[in-house]
Amino acid sequence: MLCRRRFATQELLRISRDGDGALRTGERGGRGVWICSGSHEAGLHAGIRQGLRGPVSDEEADVIDQARRAWIETTSERRGA
Description:
The protein is of the alpha+beta class. It has helices at 41-52, 58-79, and strands at 13-17, 23-25, 31-35.
């Protein structure tokens, strides 16, 4: 987990790789990491690479960034922020 605090899984975004090596967001299974809305962008990609135990392409990093922004926006709306 990249936020160093405990959260319910509903408050975290899952980034993982399935058995075929495809990147998945929001799904369980495979090798992955959980990130929270407070995860700092500076170390985010390095932490994801470490958690996935492998490289993350620029295209995959873009997908992760888009998923994270959409997830943060949705989470903020649910909390009424």
